[in-house]
Amino acid sequence: MGCAGSSQAKSDGNVKKIRKPKPWKHPQPITKSQLMQMRDEFWDTAPHYGGRKEIWDALRAAADAELSLAQAIVDSAGVIVQNADLTICYDERGI
């Protein structure tokens, strides 16, 4: 008779729990509409810096979501999180 055993599979170690970023401050006072325009400009131009559009879309959805949903979005999209506040992220190709 043989003996069998099992153990829990080790995770890949790439999953990092995300957190809210520190509050951002602009050097001069701006209106809410100016802030929204700046956000839209960022998300519109971000894919031009490299990476897949799907990853950028996932990051935008995560940035606008509550933390638990944001974590699920980042995990399911395969985003590799370098900084827990999402300031440095990349896809599996390193972009």
Automatic annotation (TrEMBL):
A Pfam family: UBD
Entries under InterPro entries matching the protein: DC-UbP/UBTD2_N (IPR032752), DC-UbP/UBTD2_N_sf (IPR038169), UBTD1/2 (IPR039869)
Domain DC-UbP/UBTD2 N-terminal: 16-94
Superkingdom: Eukaryota
Region (Disordered): 1-36
Biased segments, Polar residues type: 1-11
Gene3D superfamilies assigned to the protein according to its UniProt record, in alphabetical order: Ub domain-containing protein, DC-UbP/UBTD2, N-terminal domain (1.20.225.20)
Composition bias type Basic residues, residue spans: 16-25
Name assigned to this protein: DC-UbP/UBTD2 N-terminal domain-containing protein
Organism, as annotated: Populus trichocarpa
Top-level taxonomy: Eukaryota, Viridiplantae, Streptophyta, Embryophyta, Tracheophyta
